[in-house]
Give the backbone structure.
Amino acid sequence: MKHIFKSFISKNPFLKRILKPCYRFLKPEKGIFRFYLLRVADIFVPKSKNIWVFPVHFYLKTFSDNIRAVYEEVKDDNDIIKVILTRDKPIDFFNPGKNTVILPMKSWKAYWYLLKCKVIFVQHSLRHDFYPLQYKDNLTLSIKKRKLVNLWHGIAVKSIIAPSTGIQHKAINKEKKYYLITASSLNDWMVMVSAFYPVKPSNVIITGSPRNDFVKCDENKLPELQVKQLNGLKDKLGSKKLVLYAPTYREINLGGKSYNFSEDELKELKQLLDKHNAVLGFRLHYHNRNINYNQIIDNEYFIDLDQTFFPDMSVIIRAAEVVISDYSGLMIDTLYANKTIINFTYDYAHYGLKERGFSYPLDLIAPLPLCYNFQQLTHYLDKALSNDLLEYQEKYKTSQKLFFENHDASNSKRLVDFLKKSLCL
């Protein structure tokens, strides 16, 4: 029928000139029509505290990270309708729980659930996570009538108030005072209250980071895709230990650079990996994936652990013996997993002064001395792979205490319990 209608219209130029603009105006992705329709409808449609909306990742478009962890906590809850909104790609190896609805974000049915929902989760902001539904930086829905839960993507080691994070955008500033934000400790709470001002301090709750449940829980409680990826990674490693190198985002426009390993350094790394029967996995930040380490990857000493293959970092942390990063929140996730973290800070001064800067003095929170050059990096990597870090054990525990008020696999549960109590569910 649809094909016949299209054929009829295409053969009638006059009708085509009249109907084509109307069709474009009525399409669900049409900004101005959608904006005013939803704005008006939102006034009259009653909200249901049983409808919770989970958008996919704002950049990678995967159903992962903190939002996935919270979903896993409520997936079998019959009292909650879980609405997952996708963006141009399906969710891989996904076994939906009870009362789960999966819809394209730009669809009329998705708009209907958004009108009715009481709880919305984001991992950056409403503007980023629901960008397809924005109209000229105006919010489509009224936040006042909902609980907008911001599950910021990682505990803030580097500053999150720098311009590159986007949270100072005028549209996001309109959202902040309505946020409900999770924190992992009193120190993290203070950073989040300051960064997201004018959020109410009472709206920043210490539950722990939901995604850290995935590095502490029993393997049989992981989502199906993570189990598949973890088993695949273990098969790939065989008997070898995994060392992960995952540097944070470098702002190329501000002079940020990835580390350029020389031939001699690569040779030294191979000798060190040989000595400890290990491999080094590379995983760049998703905004820096154009930086080319492909010439290094040989699948013998150096392997690729890109987000394409492993959307959730928790899988790699579980498999890793040692993690090398710099200023990333990955440092805190690694501490949570009780794994060794080495901070390779080759551009410490530049990153602190010219790029993002830091939320904390890095030498205070790092469990090991900072590595400002390759020689220091290999020294501490050798000690880590030799289990020769006993002298830093107390500093490691101190670092954990700075960031974790709770250290278990119940971070998502604490958040869900808080929401249910506040909604009287």
Notes: The two ends are 45 Å apart (CA to CA). The chain has a mean pLDDT of 89. The CA atoms of residues 254 and 332 lie 26 Å apart. The first helix runs from residue 2 to 10.
